[in-house]
Amino acid sequence: MKSNRDRQNITIRVAGERLALSVIREDEEIYRKAGNRLKKKIEALNQRYPTLCVDSIVNLATFPFVLQITRNKFKNKNDGSSSLLLYPPKTGNCFDKELEQIYGDARKLQKERISLYNERYTTISSNIISKMVAYCFAFEIERSEYMKKFQAEHGAAYSIL
After folding, report:
1. Exposure winner among 9, 28, 52, 76, fewest CB in 10 A?
2. Rounded to whole angstroms, how far apart are CA atoms 30 and 142?
3. How far is CA 140 from the centre of its chain?
4. pLDDT band (50, 70, 90) for residue 1
């Protein structure tokens, strides 16, 4: 466990809400990149769906991150692309069934994480909870990409978990 000296306090904005975080000093860049990734996603969705409320936009922004995490866990090797569709195609072939499984698992993971945060942070409003969850998923993606890059540069024998 890192001591408090090895930690740094930072503030991240998610959909107009300030989230104060205490992070490991060496990981500050990853946290900030995750915040920027989420910010860009929310801004793009705000432009595309100007009539949706902030909570709906945050949930829409979160889902691709959850989907990517789920897809990575599922280790679907059928398509080499990193593009993520919001909804699986409905053509009935075997690949679509696997995609449906991934999407179902992603939706379940998102609901479970929101439920966990609601239980843990009972005094925080649900709209802030959804922003916290969105940020956490964006961070997981950013950390995963950082780990891949680190291992490519330093060899697979290194692990930063």
Report:
1. 9
2. 6
3. 6
4. low
CA 10 centroid distance within chain: 18
Residues 41, 30: Cα–Cα separation, whole Å: 17
Please give the single-letter amino acid code of residue 137. Answer: F
Determine the residue type at 153: E
| Residue 24 φ/ψ, nearest 5 degrees | -65, 130
How crowded is residue 157: how many other Cβ atoms within 10 Å of its Cβ? 6
pTM of the complete model: 0.64
Confidence of residue 157 (pLDDT cuts 50, 70, 90): low
Instruction: Tell me whether strands 17-24 and 7-14 are parallel, antiparallel or unpaired.
Output: antiparallel
What does the pLDDT look like over 41-72, one tens digit per residue?
A: 889 888 988 888 888 888 888 878 887 777 66
CA distance 31 to 64: 18
Tell me: the pLDDT tens digits for 103-124?
Answer: 778 878 888 888 888 888 888 8
The distance from CA 84 to its chain's CA centroid, rounded to whole angstroms, is: 13
Give CA separation, 41 vs 14, 18, 29, 36, 113, in Å: 11, 17, 18, 9, 20
**Residue 17 bridge partners (DSSP):** 14
Residue 60: which H helix or E strand, with range?
Answer: helix 54-74
